[in-house]
Specification:
Oligomer: single chain
Number of helices: 3
Number of strands: 3
Distance between the termini: 22 Å
Helix content: 25-40%
Radius of gyration: 14 Å
Shape: globular
Strand order of the largest sheet: 1-3-2
Length: 79
């Protein structure tokens, strides 16, 4: 990719997964500027990347318990 070429959202998510191992919606929004992370994950899965979702529990800014998905790339298992 040339210096002035813009990476697609899908490419940014894949690079993040390869570097850090996982991503969630908040990280995608805050770090990569991607508002529909699940759609990019769907596209990557459709390209045969083995990405699994694990549900986690956290607390939102109002102190309420919330469940959210964290996406993990299973390295070396893409076709």
């Amino acid at each position: 990719m040339g210096k002035n070429e813009k990476k697609s959202q899908r490419e940014r998510v894949l690079e993040w997964l390869k570097k850090y191992g996982s991503i969630n919606d908040n990280e995608a929004r805050d770090e990569l500027g991607i508002r529909r992370c699940g759609a990019r994950i769907y596209e990557l899965r459709d390209m045969n990347y083995n990405i699994v979702t694990k549900m986690e529990v956290g607390t939102n800014r109002f102190g309420e318990k919330v469940r959210y998905g964290v996406y993990y790339l299973k390295e070396g298992e893409e076709d």
